[in-house]
């Protein structure tokens, strides 16, 4: 049985691998900022300019609240839980929790749509069929447009279950 804390840790580890998956794209810098662990904060070359990936309730390196960059792509990752159901009863009940990983991607307006498409494709490839222990991502939806005054924005949703 996996706790929700353990599931979130595994999800954020996978999100941290976004930089590794983007290595074959050559061009600019990718900057992942996260939980101050050694695997995040790594800069790599990509075709997308300085992508910043942030998680909910995250401070920047100076301990200040995150301020969205206006001149480069960035992504916001959040985890939301949905229904919980009893999956089985044996020595005790086994509760299956469902949830959604939401990745909101933003690129500056007037940069075209191909950079956003490449960014969304990378996220979908990273999350599709991801599973570890009792955590399984079973569906990654195609990107959907979002309304934003300052950015061209898309959202990718990945459904998962725990236990």
Shape: elongated
Tell me the number of strands. Answer: 9
**Average pLDDT value?**
77
CATH architectural designation:
2-Layer Sandwich
Number of helices: 3
Structural class: alpha+beta
Q: Can you summarize the main beta sheet?
A: 9 strands, mixed
Question: What is the terminal separation in angstroms?
Answer: 6 Å
Number of domains: 1
Can you tell me the residue ranges where pLDDT is under 50 for at least 5 consecutive residues?
23-47
Order of helices and strands: HHEEEEEHEEEE
Radius of gyration: 17 Å
What's the CATH class, please? Alpha Beta
Kindly report the CATH topology: STM4215-like
- Helical percentage: 10-25%
- Strand fraction equals 35-45%
Question: Secondary-structure map with pairings?
Answer:
Layout (H helix, E strand, L loop, with lengths): L3 H13 L1 H4 L6 E5 L10 E4 L4 E5 L18 E16 L3 E16 L5 H14 L3 E2 L2 E6 L3 E3 L4 E12 L1
For the structure shown, list the relevant keywords.
single chain; 163 residues; alpha+beta; STM4215-like; 9-stranded mixed beta sheet; 3 helices; 9 strands; 42% strand; elongated
């Amino acid at each position: 049985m996996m706790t929700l804390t353990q599931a979130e840790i595994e999800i954020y580890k996978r999100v941290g691998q976004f930089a590794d998956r983007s290595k074959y794209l050559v061009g600019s810098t990718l900057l992942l900022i996260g939980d101050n662990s050694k695997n995040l904060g790594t800069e790599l070359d990509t075709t997308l300019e300085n992508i910043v990936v942030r998680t909910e309730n995250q401070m920047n390196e100076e301990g200040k609240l995150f301020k969205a960059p206006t001149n480069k792509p960035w992504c916001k990752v959040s985890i939301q839980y949905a229904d919980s159901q009893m999956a089985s009863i044996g020595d005790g009940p086994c509760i299956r929790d469902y949830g959604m990983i939401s990745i909101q991607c933003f690129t500056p307006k007037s940069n075209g749509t191909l950079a956003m498409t490449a960014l969304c494709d990378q996220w979908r490839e990273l999350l599709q069929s991801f599973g570890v222990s009792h955590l399984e991502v079973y569906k990654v939806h195609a990107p959907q447009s979002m309304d934003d005054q300052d950015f061209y924005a898309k959202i990718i949703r990945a459904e998962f279950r725990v236990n």
